[in-house]
Amino acid sequence: MIENLKIVLKYLSHFDEDQLSHITNVFKPKSAKRKEIILQHGEVCNEFYYVHKGCIRTGFYTKDGHEKTRLIMCDCSIGTALTSFISQQPSFEFIEAVEDTELLAISRYDFYKLNEEMVEWKIFYQKILEMAYAFQNKKIESLVTLSAKQRYEKSLKENPALVQRLSNKILASYLDITQETLSRLKSQ
């Protein structure tokens, strides 16, 4: 698990082996069962995650009580409910395990302590923020400019594993379409 985290860290910044060892020592193993809520809506997010194996999602509830999935993080990915993590305000989002999941978690305290100690961690953090910004912009762009069918086809092309791993309910909420529309698109 730690070796895979090191690969992700090295991909995003230029850490040396001593730095990687120091960083990975502050990450703690954590597991979550399928459908387990890792962060409740309204709680303050105090952890940042590396998903070793499995899948988690961040989502929120509409004013009508419907779930919307904002982000899916599967094997070898990183993330959290970033707005709450940064602001330390109650989270608008929840985090849920979509599958039985093995994680490594770093506390907010340790995350920001590394930010003070290492220039390379600042670069890592900057890349996380840039990736989050770019991802959200692309998602908004596709919601505004693409039809439901085009969003489904794009997801199928760019990340076919999501279509296979996610329930229709979660995939539909991620693509912002109804489950009925998703079923129709899958059958075509």
Labels describing this entry:
188 residues, alpha+beta, Jelly Rolls, 4-stranded antiparallel β-sheet, 8 strands, 23% strand, globular
Task: Write structural notes for this entry.
The protein is α+β, with helices and mostly antiparallel strands and 188 residues long. It has a single domain (2-145), classed as Jelly Rolls (Sandwich). It is 52% helix and 23% strand. The protein contains nine helices and eight strands. Strand 4 (55-61) and strand 5 (67-74) form a beta hairpin. The longest helix is centred in the last third of the chain and has 27 residues, at 119-145. It is globular, with a radius of gyration of 17 Å. The chain starts with a helix and ends with a helix.
How would the blueprint of this fold be written?
Layout: H1 2-12, H2 17-26, E1 28-32, E2 37-39, E3 47-53, E4 55-61, E5 67-74, E6 77-79, H3 82-87, E7 94-97, E8 101-107, H4 108-117, H5 119-145, H6 148-158, H7 160-165, H8 168-175, H9 179-187
Antiparallel strand pairs: 1-8, 2-7, 3-6, 3-8, 4-5, 4-7
- State the end-to-end CA separation: 39 Å
The count of helical stretches stands at 9
The structural domain count equals 1
Assign the CATH topology.
Jelly Rolls
Oligomer state of the chains in this structure: single chain
Total count of strands = 8
**What would you call the structural class?**
alpha+beta
Which residue ranges are poorly predicted, with pLDDT under 50 across at least 5 consecutive positions? none
Q: What share of residues is helical?
A: 40-55%
